[in-house]
Amino acid sequence: MRLYTSKRHIIDSFKSLKRNGWMSVASVSAVSVTLLLLGIFLALVLNVNKLSTEIENDVHVRVLIDRDTTATQKKHLRTKLNSMNNVAKVQYSSRNNELKRVVGHYGRSFRMFSGDENPLNDVFIVSTKTPQATVRVARQANNLKYVDSASYGGRQANQLFKVMGSIRTWATAFTLLLLFVAIFLISNTIRITIISRQDEIGIMRLVGATKAYIRWPFLLEGAWTGLLGAILPIILIDLAYHWVYGVTRTSLTGFGYSLAAPTSFLWSINLLMVLVGVLIGSVGSIVSMRRFLKV
Questions:
Q1: What is the pLDDT of residues 238-283, one digit of tens each?
Q2: Tally of CB atoms within 10 A around 236
Q3: Same domain for 136 and 44
Q4: pLDDT tens digit string along 159-212?
Q5: CATH of the domain at 109
Q6: pTM > 0.85: yes or no
Q7: DSSP conformational letter for 153
Q8: For residues 254-276, b (16+ Cβ closer than 10 Å) or e, as one string?
Q9: Residue 126's domain spans which residues?
């Protein structure tokens, strides 16, 4: 396609948007609402997945060491734990540190057990490479020498893994469903715009215009409709998410969790909304006008 022809098609597509006034506004508005819903749900799903992963990774294996174990034996036990499959990291927590943790959770009255009265054990806190590996690691650790017991949360941890897995599955399914709905709504909105101009297409075909010559302005018009429809959702979602992130940052950090940082994923959502709008707008225009070119 020549440069002059390309320039003419671009100008004609903008003129067409302006000439069709309220129909163009309706199309852009429908695209904006659809992409806004898609963007909000994508942001929600990404954060649900992030928080699910953080909650799962917060499950560790706590290996209680026999009280009469020497420093050399503890070092040997730590080496054994580090050499186990699926173990990512092993941290040591003394009896005194464990007591401080109990005091922090349940109150100062537990300080009476400090010193020689401390009934707690020294602990190795084992982080696994995957959350689901905690069960296997706990069972293997229980069989090691110098280990009093090893626990990972038991039935509650297993239920947590199942719930988080279900959340991810349903979130992915709803995302795909919403993406399909977005494609359906946007393509049908563009189709209505094309149908309202079938006489214009017919006249151009009768006077000798080629199919490609007729098709290009409509393709570009659909692309502009999708692009314009994506601008408002991008602005609203970016502003709203920055505000939500700022409000919840302090409270979630206190629990050891956080929402995804805006700079880490908003650009991908923005790009996806632009691509969905432009691609569906242009492709929808081409598909919708095929039967009107058969003159």
A1: 999 988 888 887 666 555 567 888 887 788 889 988 988 888 777 7
A2: 14
A3: no
A4: 666 776 777 778 778 777 877 776 777 667 667 766 666 676 677 767 766 666
A5: 3.30.70.3040
A6: no
A7: -
A8: eeeebbbeeeebbeebbebbbeb
A9: 60-152
